[in-house]
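Justification of computing resources. Each target in the renewal requires a structure prediction run like the one illustrated here; the chain below, 396 residues long, is used simply to show the kind of job we budget for.
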Amino acid sequence: MSRRGVLAVLGTVPAAVLTGCSGSADASEGTDAKAGASTKAEVKTPTVTVTPADGTKKAGFTSPVEVTVSDGTLASVEVSGNDGSTLAGSFNDARTKWTSTKNPYSGTKYTVTATPKGAAAQSASFVTKQPSDTFVGYFTPEANSTSGVGMPVSINFTEAVKDRAAVEKAITVTAEPSVEVVGHWFSDTRLDFRPEEYWAAGTKITLSLRLKDVEGTTGVYGTQSKDVTFHIGRRQISTVDLAKKTMTVERDGSTLASYPVSGGDADHTTWSGIMVISERFKQTRMESSTVGLGDEYDISDVPHAQRLTTSGTFIHGNYWASTSVFGSTNTSHGCVGLHDAKGANDSSVPGYKFYAASMLGDVVVVKNSGEKTVEASNGLNGWNLSWADWKAGSAL
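Resulting structure tokens:
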């Protein structure tokens, strides 16, 4: 049951009293003296009521603000929050009721100023409560970063989302130059955005999060209201052909380099398909136990490692294999390897050169690996879905 606050009360104003008098000193002779008669006319003062009620400390935030008036009409209504926000709204045809277009934000103090026609302005205030359970969305790439043309906008939520439509509607991704951008749900906690084709080089991307007070699941509300900007750099697409054991690197339509590589062997084939570089390490430790391969290897200083899948596929430097392996034999446990030097500081070797030329979001296409296409959700690899399949994953 809503709480309402009354800002004004009814009042009465006495009418003028007219009294008759005789002009004679002797009122008892020849003249009828009439006693004065008085009448009173009641004038009602407009009464303004606000919902939530004036003085409420823990008002709800899931319903609009309402202002009503009796015995009059509303000339104007203003609702402002202590966070600098304002609530727009509209009147009914009779101008006896005003309703905010949107709900008030949680955890905010609001002041309502309502002015009836022909009367003084009246004010009320209330404070909305904080939600007890909340969620946020962690996004990739980082704010103000520059990425390759394959980088999607990927959002991972801290709580499972049941109302996908409400959450997706509260998130927009726009591009300059303009292109259609659509969301795709990979799970209840992951929503990615991409255009039909790779981003154009030099694109500016803006992520607008309007999740504050959006109910992602019953009783769990978002907290974010912010805009984030990313940029797309040059266009670099690298194609790994594991039948030929070579990788060709193209930048902005021209061949930048070609390197001999070694991919997964017959027992540990490399995923095929379109993959996007999602992490980069000058040196990192790789343990077979972390990818379900027991104790087959544990290398503490793998140079120039760039992640292609969540499941553990990298393109990286390799100093422990013979130079003759690269370009001739696929010998890895599923990664794509380039000749490199221990310590990751030799700028003359392919591993170093490719790492130096790469950035997050660059595209690596693997073909002729003997393995099926990587799952679109395994890393930032949604480009493996057709545009129709991608759009089918939107909740809108």
